[in-house]
Amino acid sequence: MLESLQTVFASGELAFPVWLTLRACACGLVLFVLLAVPLAFYTARSKSLLSKCLLFASTLPLIFPPVALGYLLLLLLGRNGLLGAPLFAATGLRLIFSEPAVYLAAFIAGLPLIVRPVREAFTSPRMRDLEEAARICGLGPMQVFLSVSLPLARNAIASALLLALARCAGEVGITLMLGGNIEGRTTTLSLEIFNAVGRGDFDLATGLCIVLAAIAVSLYGLLQLSRKEQSL
Amino acid sequence: MLQFDLTKTLGEKTFRFSGEAPGGAITVILGRSGSGKTTLARLLAGILEPDSGTISCSGRTLYESSRSFSLAPEKRGVGFVFQDHRLLPHRTVRDNILLPVRLGGRSPHLPLKAVMELLQISRLADRYPRSLSGGEAQRVSLARAMMASESFLIMDEPLSSVDPLLRADLIAFFKRVPAEFSLPVLYITHSAAEARFLGDQALFIQDGGVMDRGPVRDVLLRNRFVQPFEELADA
Predict the structure, then answer these.
(1) What total of structural domains would you count in chain A?
(2) Each residue of B115-137: pLDDT tens digit?
(3) What is the dihedral of CA A155, A156, A158, A164, to 10 degrees?
(4) Do A137 and B148 touch (CB under 8 A)?
(5) Measured distance CA(B137)–CA(A96) in Å, rounded
(6) Class of the CATH-defined domain B2-89+152-234
(7) Which of A116, A153, B162, B163 could make an S-S bridge to A121, C-beta 3.0–4.6 Å?
(8) pLDDT digits over A19-28, tens only?
(9) Is the ipTM of this complex over 0.90?
């Protein structure tokens, strides 16, 4: 068993899915910081219909089966889809069955794990009180966001990011539908485990599980560390 | 001189406030719990938007409903001491006090050193709010409010969350404030003792409106709440 695992690790078969998964996680992280955190703040502060719709849409990956959600996104983003058709007409870009589709799937899968908890942090009465105090001290809304809201929510954001990254690393359903599970192009670690088991290549599947477990343990360690700092 | 004449409806209750507060003196806003004292403070600071009326300070209009003009809270130049200190936990005492100057662009009437010496908090400059006692935190909060005050200063029941043993010390610091700068100071309280010790004049608020105004002693006597309010303060 050990020998065959060593062969798997030495063969380089793991390289592509590992790097694709890490790239998807990195891309997800950037998108979470740039889009999901401001979205959490917006839904925490605005009571508009748009805010409610965005909150519902961002929660959907948590309450709707990933494969079904992936299928709906496939219809939406496909070459003849509601969004896919104008995108293709304008740029010639085909999003589905490509590497960016894997990144998008990772982002969508992790989105609710950022938006819900970070929104909770932004809506706490203590946060509102301190923001109010800062406004009276002369800080404009953007300064309050950057100098008060974000630093106060940093622990909640860090925890949420780690959980969302773990979700990115293990995402299957949406990635399968949007990425197409194309060997050597859109197969992430989780999909490669599925494929390997289907082929009867159990050594490869075990090797991939070990890599995923290492990622999961690292993220759990970081999560515990961030919670320890939070309690100091 | 701060002048205001405002109406605001919250739920089923309508508040009507009018009054003035001269510079260099403490005007006490007196009233029972729920009478609207804090609502008035929030309206003046710009945290709550009035339904109609005007607010002006030293000839500068802060709010005028007939022109649909309302300055944002950050542009009103108000200093505010809250019931709880509301210091930013991730910033040191010095950074908290300088917040209105460094990030808010305010021009304080007194330099930082003078404010810190006045309130005896120089030795706390590098500490974080979580390491301060209730009395120290409230003095730091007052220092921040003094640095933020360009138009007027509001103190909203600043002793309510402080240990009774520390109140006498703190109130002595509050007493010194008007002498240091010529701005109007509003001190909100339900304590007749605090009002008598600190106030130059008083506005008595009841049922969402200003029911009486004048020298503190006269307002206290006319409205016969010396005894009930002392009992409340002792409770």
Answers:
(1) 1
(2) 888 888 999 999 999 999 888 99
(3) 170
(4) yes
(5) 57
(6) alpha beta
(7) A153
(8) 999 999 999 9
(9) no
